Amino acid sequence: MKPFLLLATRAENDVADEEYETICRFSGLEESRLHRVRLELAPMPPIDLERYSGVIIGGSPFNSSDPPELKTEVQRRAETEMRDLLDEVVARDFPFLGACYGVGTLGTHQGGVVDRTFGEDIGVIEVALTEEGRRDPLLRELPATFHGFVGHKEGTRRLAPTAVLLASGAACPVQMFRVKQNLYATQFHPELDGPALLNRIEAYKSHGYFPPGDAERVKDRIRTGPRVTEPEKILAAFVDRYAR
């Protein structure tokens, strides 16, 4: 089987490694079958899509909608590299799954509007599949409504004209969409479990998602909230469908 490619942008080694571990665990991929490229460490190497079964983008502290002057040089470079890769990915309808940051990358690439209108506090929300979502092969094993982890400063205000809405939420209407037949992006996090989210809360407590002194309160909200078990199935379905 050809490996999958993970494009990552998390600078914290422990958080980056945990993201890699949970994606392997939820997808069923062995480490040898998930090739990771950390774009925050070095420029993207040449990517030959013929070597891979599909592309996965993890979450990120980057915000696509920030003004260019507020973005670091690393973020501007990574966004340019991902945009160039998406030109080929979209043209070929090549299997793609973007978790959270995928909304900002794939959504903006396709002409959607991503801004801070529909940001959500870190927590657990109810996600509802649309009629199209219930028919989608990646989501057929999921119930019509389920809980998912969120925590993002920006979200989709206007869906790209090429995108099909697959899942929605009360505070953020666009929770998952598809472009063409094989390109997906989620706003919720299919790559997270409770312990990993608690670690991210600690790692990013000074990144503006909440007042730093509220970290323990936010963690308690996760510990006492509904169990999140369904989104991780999307990773397994993605690998099962596209492994080649």
TrEMBL record:
Q: What is this protein called?
A: Glutamine amidotransferase
Q: Does the keyword Secreted apply?
A: no
NCBIfam families the record matches: PRK07567.1
Cellular component GO terms, alphabetically? cytosol
What is one Pfam family matched by this protein? GATase
Q: Coiled-coil segments, which residues?
A: none
Keyword Protein transport among UniProt keywords: no
| Keyword list, A-Z | Glutamine amidotransferase
Query: Residues in domain Glutamine amidotransferase?
Result: 49-192
Q: What is the protein's species of origin?
A: Kocuria dechangensis
InterPro entries, per the entry: ChyE-like (IPR044992), Class_I_gatase-like (IPR029062), GATASE (IPR017926)
